[in-house]
Amino acid sequence: MRTSVALQAGESKTARGESVWRRRLGSALTELAIWVPLTIAAGNVVVFTLWTTWVSFTASKLMPDYDWVGLRNYWAVTRTANFQIAYVNLVIFGLGYVLLTMALGLLLAILLDQRVRGENVLRTVFLYPLAVSFVVTGTVWSWLLNPGLGIQKLVNDLGWTDFRFDWLVQSDKAIYTVIIAGVWQAAGFAMALFLAGLRSLDKDLIKAAQIDGAGPWRMYRRVLLPTIWPIFVTVFVILLQWAIKAFDLVRALTGGGPGISTMLPTLVVYDFMFQRSELGRGSAAAVLMLLSLVVVLAPYGIYMRWRRQRQARA
Amino acid sequence: MAALSIRGLSKRFARLEVLKDINLDIESGEFTVLVGPSGCGKSTLLSIVAGLERASAGIVEIGGRIVNDIEPKDRDIAMVFQSYALYPSMSVRQNITFGMECRHVPKPEQEAAVAHVAKLLQIEPLLDRRPSQLSGGQRQRVAMGRALVRDPLLFLFDEPLSNLDAQLRVEMRMEIKRLHQRIGATIVYVTHDQIEAMTMATRIAVMYKGEVQQFADPDTIYRYPANLFVARFMGSPPMNTMPARLLAEDGMPQVVIGAGRPDEVRLRLRGYDAAAAFRGSEVVLGIRPECIAESGRVFGDTSEAPIVVNAPVEMIEPTGAETIVLLRLGGEPALARISPDIRPATGALAPFALDTRRICLFDPTTERLIA
Amino acid sequence: MKWSRIIIYSALIALALLFLMPLGVVLMNSLRSSQEIAATSMIGWPRQLTFANYGQAWNQFCMAEHCWGIEPYMLNSFTLVIPATILSTMLGALAGYSITLWRFRGDQLVFGLVTLGVFLPEQMKLIPWVVVLRDLSLMNTISGLILIHTIQGMSFTTLFCRNYYVSIPPDLLKAAKIDGAGFFRIFWRIVLPLSPPILIVTVIFQFTGIWNEFLYGVTFTSGGQQPVTAALISLSAAVTSEPMYGEQSAAVLIAALPPLLVYLFGGRYFMSGLTAGAVK
């Protein structure tokens, strides 16, 4: 005894009120809605990468030109002083930036993990540099580290006339200023991730360690930190690829100088492409940059996949 | 005309064959339960009937119509899920009317439908609440309301009570059964709980490893299980099964448990002529725990005194309603359900009455029922 | 142990001051006149509070060749960031929804490619965009930048939305399909209403990210068309010639304000977004 609620008797259940073409239109729209955004996004990634790689093998100068020149651009680029200094700087900057940021971030995370009052306020303070653009960071630090204007002048005026903090204008020390500004900006990020990791630990682990008699130092060193090891790896990789991509910060802080002492690969690309109008060379430099990124990210990707498979099997 | 007809259905996922040659015919108004352990394929079968998955081979007919290529929304079915699947951002009312909205049913009809169903399920005061504000039992009723309002040919239930606590489960079980009696719907119900199956079904399909082991009404399944799996799966505590030997003696058949042992048990059987072919060979004997009782129990209304056996008691579990005894028959372990007032001493022999009318014999190789 | 608490708090306060120092300095300087700063140093309390810098910075200040203050650049940034954020977020939600809940052949591959876009350096896309913008006559326009940021932004927004949508119970969709809902109806009535948490995070990240973006801004626009972050480079000590530090500080502060405000009001979401994004 069916109630007379839903559909009237005799109604075609398959195409109720819908003509065939309307259904086809509906599914066509669905296909479009699915494929168009995805194709554009994926295509953007694939096509542009291939395009730039292609240009790197051509003799393009001011405009993309399509004469194939093989690896000539690569040879030319890698032989310039700009490039060589840039990659040396990248190693110095990369290691300094990543390691110091992680250390400071870890310190902050551990301090904040101690159930301090005002934790939210403190966290906001440590994280706000991330909301600020690299250009602003670089500009402000360029003022602070300017020997004639900033910290050095302040300290000198206060009486310590011999105080020197003029790394910004010294060719061999300028790269360290970039590290300082970079660490200031990114430490909060590392802190946020480490803190989240520490907080997500199994409480029973801590209780077990306490029963075993572990003091806070040992607790951190032997129990907690090793357990959040995957987060270390993640933070390391993210920071390293930020270091490779660093452009705005250097441009604003030192402009690549003094001279070319703080050149970095991103600046090399920009320099070739837009200041020397050598699109081919610039593309080659960009591709080399991409390769250094791959060197960093590929092992990470493989490591993550290996870990996931191991967990799935367990 | 059968409400649901499944013929030669099979389903494979890559190499794995999840369903093998399923054949079922379900009449209109029946309450069919698909029961089996996890992984037996019952949920997959339900999904295929619903149209959420495609069969690798075979035909599904709903209401006489072949629906293999028809979308779920056009199959005239409704489904109730284990997790209720209520739309969290919509009120109860909107949850119920959502399907009608999709079908462009005019507003006044929708109102009438909701009112009718809410009254039936007694969820009128809940109509403007969100799912997150409801209890488990209330959510389940709303899920049923959503299904009811479609007034379909077939109701599909996918383990709807598994998420409820034991007490609520018993309540909802009765409600679903009552609903079935009131509106006479055709229901296909999937569960792993054989008690639900026994109490609610008009017919049960016991499934295992992708095959239907037996498809019959609850009584038949309980008394004449088609094979060892069905025998052991249905009934709690499960049927005792043990190897035995059928004696090749003329006259009444006899079955021996633990032949040759000092504590061997011989039982005379009556009316097990079908087992004639197995005289002299090994069989598997099945006897349900409630068929082993304290001595002095009379089974059925026969005037004959039941066979009494002395068996060693290993352990007893008083449950309040009865005492479950672990004993040995001819050396084989068996569970008995005896009167709650009697607590035999462990380690000693005690007398037990056996109901030999209900003994099942199984072929040890094919595991199928002989008699 | 009391001592340890004292050490912890002191360390935290000291570090907090260190972190706040640059912001504090700029704030102070924006309230001092440029002459005062030039006479003493960048760091110091205002001897005389002056708010004139802000007015100057807004519409009279000279940066690069133009003396129309920071106002036009701020307007450019808003015109850029608001549409780009909204578009990239909506498209990302749609794409994330498609990939997660409507499985199709090759969906993992497409998703992987889209996600790669998050890591791809901007430099790899400069030349192609130059050509595309030129062909579409969008060179040196904010619309061109909107196009770039919308499309590039999709990599990030799709990744985030997808990671969120995987936790939607599949039974919900099965019920909706049986009810007869199609692709768009399910998106509109079921998935979107569940999305506010991830949409807020995505909007926050996109807003700050696009506002603070520099390379594309400085490459594809120039002069009066630039968004504020690109225009700001001319204030850097490495680039500027005229030291008007009071006005410059005010300008920098104004330019940094919108993302900072978004961060302050959306702080909780910022934090949860960071940690969620890192769990890939």
Write the layout of secondary structure elements.
The complex is a heterotrimer of chains A (314), B (371) and C (280).
Chain A lengths: L19 H37 L15 H8 L1 H32 L6 H9 L6 H11 L6 H7 L16 H26 L3 H9 L4 H12 L1 H17 L2 H6 L11 H11 L3 H35 L1
Helix pairs in contact in A: 1-13, 2-13, 3-7, 3-10, 5-7, 7-10, 10-13, 12-13
Chain B lengths: L1 E12 L2 E12 L3 E5 L6 H9 L6 E6 L2 E2 L10 E4 L11 H11 L4 H15 L14 H13 L5 E5 L7 H18 L3 E5 L2 H7 L2 E6 L2 E6 L1 H6 L4 H6 L6 E8 L6 E4 L7 E4 L13 E6 L4 E3 L12 E12 L4 E7 L2 E7 L10 E6 L5 E3 L9
Parallel strand pairs in B: 3-8, 3-9, 6-7, 7-8
Antiparallel strand pairs in B: 1-2, 1-4, 4-5, 9-10, 11-12, 11-14, 12-13, 14-20, 15-19, 16-17, 16-19, 17-18
Helix pairs in contact in B: 2-3, 2-4, 3-4
Chain C lengths: L1 H29 L3 H6 L12 H8 L11 H31 L5 H13 L6 H10 L6 H24 L4 H10 L3 H9 L4 H16 L3 H6 L7 H4 L13 H21 L1 H12 L2
Description:
The complex is a heterotrimer of chains A (314), B (371) and C (280). Chain A is mainly alpha-helical and 314 residues long. Helix content of chain A is 70%, strand content 0%. Chain A has helices spanning 20-56, 72-79, 81-112, 119-127, 134-144, 151-157, 174-199, 203-211, 216-227, 229-245, 248-253, 265-275, 279-313. In chain A, 42% of the residues are buried. Chain B is of the alpha+beta class and 371 residues long. Chain B has eight helices and 20 strands. Chain B has helices spanning 42-50, 92-102, 107-121, 136-148, 166-183, 194-200, 218-223, 228-233, and strands spanning 2-13, 16-27, 31-35, 57-62, 65-66, 77-80, 154-158, 187-191, 203-208, 211-216, 240-247, 254-257, 265-268, 282-287, 292-294, 307-318, 323-329, 332-338, 349-354, 360-362. In chain B, the strands form four sheets. A six-stranded mixed β-sheet of chain B has the order 6-7-8-3-9-10, sandwiched between helices. A five-stranded antiparallel β-sheet of chain B has the order 13-12-11-14-20. In chain B, strands 15-19-16-17-18 form a five-stranded antiparallel β-sheet, with no helix packed on it. In chain B, strand 17 (323-329) and strand 18 (332-338) form a beta hairpin. In chain B, helix 2 (92-102) packs across helix 3 and helix 2 packs parallel to helix 4. The longest helix of chain B is centred in the middle third of the chain and has 18 residues, at 166-183. The mean pLDDT of chain B is 86. With 280 residues, chain C is mostly helical. Chain C is 71% helix and 0% strand. Chain C has helices at 2-30, 34-39, 52-59, 71-101, 107-119, 126-135, 142-165, 170-179, 183-191, 196-211, 215-220, 228-231, 245-265, 267-278. The mean pLDDT of chain C is 84. Chains in contact: A-B, A-C, B-C. At the A-C interface, helix 1, helix 3, helix 4, helix 5 and helix 6 of A face helix 1, helix 4, helix 5, helix 6 and helix 7 of C.
